[in-house]
Amino acid sequence: MPRPREFDESQVLLAVREEFWDKGYAATSMDDLLRASGLGKGSLYGAFGDKCSLFLRVLRDYDDANLLSLGERQESAPRAVEFVREFVLGVADDRTGAAARRGCLLANSTAELANSRPDVAAEARRTYEAITATLAAAVERAQREGDVDPDADAGEIARAVLAAQLGVVALGRTGMDLDALTEVARSALACSLPAPTR
Length: 198
Prior knowledge:
Layout: H1 9-23, H2 30-37, H3 41-48, H4 51-76, H5 80-89, H6 98-102, H7 105-113, H8 118-144, H9 154-173, H10 178-192
């Protein structure tokens, strides 16, 4: 019989995720992952497979957690338009700038790997399609609430909002001044969210 695992899988995955997020996939060595996880090579490989398998597991867990959180925030927002605005403006919420400079694990990984790794590109498409669906549902609700032009195409708006958010994430990674980053986000939202005609 196999021996039961003597480590907390969720803690190991969280520690490994932080390594990949801070350094990127290519710059994260197996020694980095062994040090971060506290596991020996045999235990890490036995539990999660090779570096690639481990990375994909971490990325999918990260994406699924974010999708769940996004859906919950959309449903609980007092007004849907405020949820959409927070989705874009939230990049600059951390006034130290550390979160903006770190970026998003999915966006960072897509930029680094999507051209060379079809599995990463597929994971990015899956997640961005799900985010777009959540944003479209929020836009439709905002239209019913009278905050967005009811004749506009909710899907097109959702894709524009996602593109705006990803642009703000990319600019945040450059270390752009947070006030300037917030203004970029506000301008993008003004272009993306057509107000109802009165």
